[in-house]
Amino acid sequence: MELKVQEESTMESKLAEVGAKLDKLALKASEAKQLALKKVQDLKEKEEHTMKKGEEALEELKSGLDNAWEDLNVAWLELKESARKAAKKFQ
Q1: What is the C-alpha separation between 20 and 27, in angstroms, rounded?
Q2: Residue 10's closest CA among 84, 78, 18?
Q3: 84: which residues sit within 8 A by CB, 6+ positions away?
Q4: Three-state SS across the chain?
Q5: What is the pLDDT of residues 1-47, one digit of tens each?
């Protein structure tokens, strides 16, 4: 009988150890989850910032392109006019 009580005590002790280890693992898993969620949030914020900066850069590029196109159009019209005047001198 005493052997049975001793075995039960040993089993309970081992179960308590396993329970404590499981509690530690659960805590580590929870901490890892929180860290991962924080990193995901940081990455989302960085993505939003990058997208905003990209949109701003695209607007600047578009503005520059519009200005260059306008300047090119003016230069083309001036070239056409100069060519017309030059051709008129040969007539």
Answers
A1: 11
A2: 18
A3: none
A4: CHHHHHHHHHHHHHHHHHHHHHHHHHHHHHHHHHHHHHHHHHHHHHHHHHHHHHHHHHHHHHHHHHHHHHHHHHHHHHHHHHHHHHHHHCC
A5: 777 778 888 899 999 999 999 999 999 999 999 999 999 999 999 99
Q: Which tokens go with 46? A: 């960085």
Residue 53 carries which side chain, given as an amino acid letter? K
52-91, pLDDT tens digit by residue?
Answer: 999 999 999 999 999 999 999 999 999 999 999 999 888 8
